[in-house]
Amino acid sequence: MSTVPGGHTEPRDEVGRHGLRNVGRGREAQTGTAGGRRGRRRAGRGEQAMVPDADFTSYYGRPVLKASPWSADIPAYLFTGGLAGGSALLAAGADLTRRPALRRAGRFGALGGLFVSFALLVHDLGRPSRFVNMLRVAKPTSPMSVGTWILTAFAGPVSLAAAAEVAPVLPRRWRAVVRLADRPAGLAAAAIAPAVMSYTAVLVSDTATPSWHEGYREMPFVFVGSSLLASGGLGMLAAPVEQAGPARKAALAGAVLELAAEHRMEQSMGIAAEPLHDGTAGRYLTLSKALTVLGAAGTLVGSRNRVVAGVSGATLLVSSALSRFGLFHAGQQSALDPKYTVVPQRERLERRAETRTV
């Protein structure tokens, strides 16, 4: 409320969850001489408003935030990077438990996911030289810089472990070296894999985009769960059921972790969670959750049936991809609507003010 001449009060303009409130109540905008003293004397005589009521949709015709310039390359990169990390972890476990078919599927899955990730990242950057330039410095405070070095460190052991799977066709002088580095390379890749699975969550949440930033606490758990879901699905799809036990367990663990973390994230995000249920993002994420439940049920019921296992694995792979694309679109949608920026900021200021007064 604000005090005006005469001692009475009138409502103050407020930005709320539904836009701008208390605008246009007894306050018309005049131009020219009507805006001076005569305008004040004639107030209340029913003059027509010279401008339309304010509509809280943008700032001077533009969103408060500029949406990320990222294209579809980035959500695909988020998916393939997670698949690579999860597959490397699964391959190391299969190697230690003597499951050669699952180990082979995991190593090739990790190498393929890594290769596609590099290709998507370079395509988004525009030129390969830009990726090389990022390796000139290591900046711990930059998620992009840290992520570049994580991928680069991951590439060596993953490539060496995958090469060990095709050692018989390599030149003779390389066979002994590759076979000697077989297990150490796989274990080294598995040691880096958790960082590969989770760093992209930090990359997207360390931005001003509301639906990404507000979920920063739970986003890494969502991404790790999605990575386990994808790698487990690939293992179920590529390995015989006799050797796919660890893949089934990884898929089920990923399903539980992803669904639980997503639910917790939506509860903690406040108004910024709305884009997760609307538009393209809402459709992708709803379908992703349904496929996760369906794939997990198939994993439990058809653990010994090759066809059911393969279909369930493919379903989980699609579910993981839809989750990444859905979260990406939710962030883009939230950047275009100013209320997802303004309302959380005001709520934080109010909480700080309450803390100081206590």
Quick recap:
This protein has 358 residues and is an all-alpha fold.
Description:
- The protein is mainly α and 358 residues long.
- The chain has a single domain (73-336), classed as Formate dehydrogenase/DMSO reductase fold (Up-down Bundle).
- 67% of the residues lie in helices and 3% in strands.
- It has 13 helices and 4 strands.
- It has helices spanning 37-41, 73-96, 100-125, 128-134, 143-165, 172-180, 182-205, 210-213, 219-238, 245-269, 279-301, 306-336, 339-357; strands at residues 2-3, 9-10, 14-16, 19-21.
- The strands form 2 sheets. Strands 1-2 form a two-stranded antiparallel sheet. Strands 3-4 form a two-stranded antiparallel ribbon.
- β1 (2-3) and β2 (9-10) form a beta hairpin.
- The longest helix has 31 residues, at 306-336.
Any descriptors?
13 helices; Formate dehydrogenase/DMSO reductase fold; mainly alpha; two-stranded antiparallel ribbon; 358 residues
